[in-house]
């Protein structure tokens, strides 16, 4: 990405306009359990995944949907190849619009960028919290990461944090509103989100899209 950081700022918060529709929000009801969670009694995470490459402002989606994080970046479940459920076409289309928005804002380059896209629902009920980040503060292991708040219902918590990895200082703590984006430098910051707790009804949830970006390197 040629302009990885604009104005020396290393995180951005802004609102999307109409990239995420109610049709897309409903699609999150069909996400499947993340079978890689260690807590077998209470499965608090559902997800789907897709990856691709940004090329001439378009996404070339890959057929391969395996995902890998090193043990260093993910102490919870890193070091193994995970194959998640593939992302629905409707969510992919919405991500294509979000990518155009990011290119227009000069956050990412319009070509030679690898993209990882996760649609994630964290759930909680009366007896169980939902953990957006069971591994705690971490890097995803890319150049930039975007966390997009898609929807939430009957929950408190789920606050996002950025910690400066060198200075070991929290530089952001914020509960993202629906349609709000947190875009940040994954090398500079470690990220985390606090557990969600039910406030009413039987089941609460927090839906997000996580996008990861890294520059294609030619050898
Ligand atoms: Fe992460």
Bound molecules: fe (ii) ion
The general outline is globular
Fourth-tier CATH superfamily name: q2cbj1_9rhob like domain
Q: How many helices in DSSP terms?
A: 2
Which oligomeric state applies?
Answer: single chain
Number of strands: 15
Distance between the termini: 16 Å
**Could you say how many structural domains there are in total?**
1
- Please outline the major beta sheet: 8 strands, antiparallel
Which blocks of ≥5 consecutive residues have pLDDT under 50?
1-7
CATH class: Mainly Beta
Compute the average pLDDT: 92
Element-level helix/strand string = EHEEEEEHEEEEEEEEE
Q: Helical proportion?
A: 10-25%
The CATH topology is what?
Jelly Rolls
Tell me the CATH architecture: Sandwich
Task: Classify the secondary structure makeup into a structural class.
Answer: mainly beta
